Amino acid sequence: MPLLEPKPGALRPTAGGRPAPDRVAGHLASGTPEPLRGDLIALLGPEKVLHTVSDLVRYASDASPYRFVPQVVVVAEDVDDISAVFSYAHGKGRKVVFRAAGTSLNGQAQGEDILVDVRRHWTGIEVLDGGAQARIRPGTTVLRANATLARYGRLLGPDPASAIACTLGGVVANNASGMTAGTTRNSYRTLASATVVLPSGTIVDTADLDADAELARAEPALCAGLLALKAEIEADAALVARIRAKYAIKNTNGYRLDAFLDGATPVAILRGLMVGSEGTLGFLAETVFDTLPLDRHTTGALLFFRTLGAAAAAVPHFTAAGARAVELMDGNTLRASVRVAGVPADWAALPKETTALLVEFRAPDETALREYEEAAARVLAGLEPVAPVASVTNAFTRAPHVLGGYWKARKAFVTAVGGSRPAGTTLITEDFAVPPARLAEACAALLELQDRHGFDAAVAGHAAHGNLHFLLAFDAAEPDDVARYAAFMADFCRLTVERFDGSLKAEHATGRNIAPFLELEWGPRATELMWRIKDLFDPAGILAPRILLDRDPRAHLRGLKTIPRIEALADPCIECGFCEPTCPSKDLTTTPRQRIVLRREMLRQPAGSPVTGALLDSYGYDAVDTCAGDSTCMLDCPVGIDTGRLMKDFRHRRHSPREERLAERTARRFGAVERAARLAVAAADRIGDRPAAALTRAARRAVRPDLVPEWLPRIPGPAARRLPVTPRAGAAAVYYPACVNRIFGEPAGHRGPSLPEAVVAVSGRAGRPVWIPGDAPGTCCATIWHSKGYERGTAVMANRIVEAAWGWTAGGLLPLVMDASSCTLGLAREVVPYLTPENRALHAELTVVDSVVWAAEELLPRLTVRRTAGSAVLHPTCSMRHLGDEAQLRRVAEACAREVVVPDDAGCCAFAGDRGMLHRELTGAATAKEAAEVTARPFDLHLSANRMCEIGMDLATEGRGYCSALLALERTTRPD
Q1: Bridge partner list, 360
Q2: SS (HEC) of 948-961
Q3: pLDDT of 3 strictly over 70
Q4: What is the reported pLDDT for 606?
Q5: How far is CA 591 from CA 399, 584, 653, 801, in A?
Q6: Quick one: angle between helices 518-537 and 479-494, nearest 10?
Q7: How many CB atoms lie within 10 A of CB 437?
Q8: What is the pLDDT of residue 2?
Q9: How far apart are CA 470 and CA 412, in angstroms?
Q10: What's the rounded Cα separation, in Å, for the pair 168 and 195?
Q11: Above pLDDT 90, what percent of the chain?
């Protein structure tokens, strides 16, 4: 056993109350039962079958209030895998559910048997016809697809609030629409074609000119049945009228029956039925979308009204004026939004009745935008907005950062309100639609109904389309609370259907919550047609049982998810999954959401549970060790949950007192540690990669893999032994070379000055000379200890560096320039909790500036560009995202190269100081997609702003030579 092996039991939670009713059964502690596990491994291979109890638990939750534990998880790579799973399910009587992003709000991404992950290997977008269309794989997020399309001035029609995380497969399968899609820009209207794997294994490309003939040969009964249903529907004039009326407003409840009216052939009908089918009719292997113009000219306003009714009454006026979006947020929503970064704090004081409309106009050119602004001004002049708090302006603006803030608050509706719910409660998200002219009446009726059942719900929605969302919180572990929720749902569904003839699901698809009420909305005739559609496509019933169709009137009360309390830092999580796309370990082990889901399962279990023991055995590596700790999850979480910080705390909990003392000692003697590290790099550089790697592997076995770095190929040689000598007199800033730049040199083949020499040279060239303190070696920003959870070592170095920096900068008179973005973040923000009160006061006087910001804002305006490269590719670091420095990196790069590219899949490299040397597989997984983009074409420059990230990207791209943008700037501006 390694010398300092951590004990899994250190993370064992203290048992709370009684075991939860939805806890994982003890017999699953050993994971997937046989013969299911063995069968699927033999069929697909071991790498495609996830079978431990940790695997099953982390896939058991999505963004919905439901929780169903799969028996096994299959990570499918291609349509052959899908067909093989279908064949197995037919032969063995198994059931199959697909899961991509897991952002579904009604349990569509959960199954009780075989769950198939169709995110990991199913990403990619191909732009067609100059951007007019796009071929998109189902695991691609809406945000990622639109990032590519934006270069062509195009975008997708569906724009759900979860665009950062939801995938196109799920968007089509649920006919998700969003803020502006309405009934004309949604998936049903903009999906040009799809490639579908039917339950039988037949593959249909609906764009193929021979698709109907091929489908008729392969599936004659399906073709005949679809045409027979079409004839039956068209022969019933009353049913045709009913179908058309139902889709005049937003509606995703049940199968899309107008596909039989809009499609002339079986394949055309099939294409329409797949939209909103929730994985019950087949697998969407590929989609082709008709794209829409990206109208870049925008104006908008957040307008506040005294009551919800007053706001609703204003909606049709803005719609008539041409507004692309009119979004409604009630008082509860607005007040909860203060949890979102950038939202004015005084919103917390808004009166409960206050309601806001987010109104936005988008135009293709300046002339059209001015016309919209004039129309908006006329509407606003006839209204009576209110300004209950100081931050409210009730004014239209074109400012992107202001509009972006409004949209951030609106899109955080579910997560912000959910994050502020009472601890331990389950969140229900419902959406419905009424004729837009009756929106105000529906709002009043909904509020009255909520009050009658004792719910203080939050309401928001796409007011222009008569589409409202509301959230309810209740305790799923308390039978009385579940009964109260059941009574509310029964009354709500009757209200929506009988009073308003509305849609019980406007854009979130039927799901488990509304399936029992399908017949209430559609009536027995149309509902029976839907059951017949299901039988036509899937006669054996292998796909997604009980998700869209369910005859059990209490099905929506089955599988409700309890939310046991966990660490306060993560307890507000509603498991929405917005954090997952940015997570470096998502394709290796776990995501932030899954780390929290696993923790909650431990709290559901009774004391001594074998399930808890099994989860703890894997949690150390799967959750704690392979978390990069970059905290980008916090940036994408609408309520700012920092799972990286939680994992650092867990690392601390696993440390023995001896380990903490050793870490503190390295901080106190860091000068010697730094010199030893540089000598070790020099020695390894001399003896070569293979011997160095063998030595470090032996040390890792003896001590602990999570403490001793592994020597990797392409790690650069040592830095120069001495830093440049610079005068203090006349310095415009203090320059602090990071310890990584005092230990590691430049990439192989580099010719020219070192990074410290380049920063000194280019700063002097701009007339802004910098001074390097002579006692900088032996100090550090404390990130080394902080990232590993060594609190005593962090406190020692944090206080030492702040005291030193205060002295170097003459009490904060000079800025402190740092040449590694993670170190800038560490000293600017992360050291603060570890400082003494006296040193916090000193820290408040410091101005910490990243070298890229220094270059962009202080040097570039004073420099002459003398030569440029043809192209540069950038790797913006995760620390730059936290600091907001990405634009400055681009500005410096644009001075150095005529073409500057940021890969669409750029993200955290997960090298994370030395974590990439502790777990090289983590960086390999994190960088795979970005590296594929980078190596697909040549670039002259490969630029970043952190030496360890540059090493990680060099490793990922097989030695492309990543280096600091400051090195490129020095060469670009060097006199001939």
Answers
A1: 300, 325
A2: HHHHHHHHHCCCCC
A3: no
A4: 94
A5: 34, 8, 20, 33
A6: 90
A7: 10
A8: 47
A9: 13
A10: 13
A11: 86
Contact 255, 273 (CB under 8 A): yes
Lowest mean pLDDT among 62-71, 504-513, 691-700: 691-700
Distance CA 314, CA 394 (A): 14
Amino acid at 209: L
pLDDT at residue number 4: 56
Candidates 776, 749, 748, 747; CA nearest to 760 is 776
User: Is 70 in a helix, a strand, or coil?
Assistant: coil
pLDDT digits (tens, 9 = 90+) for 675-712: 998 998 888 888 887 887 788 888 777 777 777 888 88
The position carrying tokens 């109260």 is: 484
Report the C-alpha gap between 960 and 36 in whole angstroms.
45
pLDDT of residue 793: 96
858 SS3 class: helix
3-state secondary structure of 38: helix
Q: Looking at the predicted structure, is the pLDDT value of residue 16 above 80? A: no
What is the spatial distance between Cα 546 and Cα 951, in angstroms, rounded to a whole number?
50
Of 334, 352, 353, 354, residue with least CA distance to 344: 334
Q: What does the pLDDT read at residue 478? A: 93
> What are the CA-CA distances from residue 611 to residues 52, 409, 506, 934 (Å)?
10, 39, 39, 43
Taking only the tens place, the pLDDT of each residue in 662-677 is 999 999 999 999 999 8
501: left (phi over 0), alpha (psi -120 to 50) or beta: left
Does the pLDDT of residue 1 top 70, yes or no?
Answer: no
The pLDDT score that the predictor gives to residue 758 is: 97
The pLDDT of 722-728, averaged and rounded, is 96
The answer to whether residues 473 and 425 touch, using CB atoms and an 8 Å cutoff, is yes
Residue at 176: amino acid letter? A
Tell me what pLDDT residue 5 has: 61
**Euclidean distance between CA atoms 606 and 18, whole angstroms:** 7
Q: What is the DSSP string of 796-821?
A: HHHHHHHHHHHHHTTTTTS-EEESSH
- Per-residue DSSP letters for 289-340? EE-EE---EEEEEEEEESSHHHHHHHHHHHHHTT-SEEEEE-HHHHHHGGGS
pLDDT digits (tens, 9 = 90+) for 206-215: 999 999 999 9
* Beta strands in 54-190, from DSSP E residues, in sequence order: 72-75, 96-99, 114-117, 125-128, 133-136, 154-155
- The amino acid occupying position 912 is A
Indicate if the alpha-carbon torsion angle 268, 271, 275, 277 is positive or negative: positive
SS3 of 166-207: the string is CEHHHHHHHCCCECCCCCCCCHHHHEEEEEEECCCCCEEECC
- Distance in angstroms (rounded) separating the CA atoms of residues 63 and 578: 9
In whole angstroms, give the CA distance from residue 951 to residue 542.
48
In the block, tokens 């509606």 appear at 251
**Angle between helix 266-274 and helix 211-218 axes, rounded to 10 deg:** 90
Q: Which H/E stretch holds residue 971?
A: helix 965-973
Quickly count: other Cβ atoms within 10 Å of residue 592's Cβ. 31
Order of strands, sheet of 191-197, starting from the edge strand that comes earlier in the sequence? 125-128, 133-136, 283-290, 191-197, 203-205
521-577 tens-digit pLDDT:
999 999 999 999 999 999 999 999 999 999 999 999 999 999 999 999 999 999 999
Other C-beta atoms closer than 10 Å to the C-beta of 622 total: 22
Break the chain down into helix, strand, coil percent, rounded to 5.
45, 15, 40
Q: Are strands 292-293 and 154-155 parallel, antiparallel or unpaired?
A: antiparallel
**Distance, CA of 903 to chain centre:** 17
3-class secondary-structure state, position 462: strand
Q: How many CA atoms does the CB half-sphere of 733 hold within 13 Å?
A: 27
Output the CA angle 512-514-520, nearest 5 degrees. Answer: 145
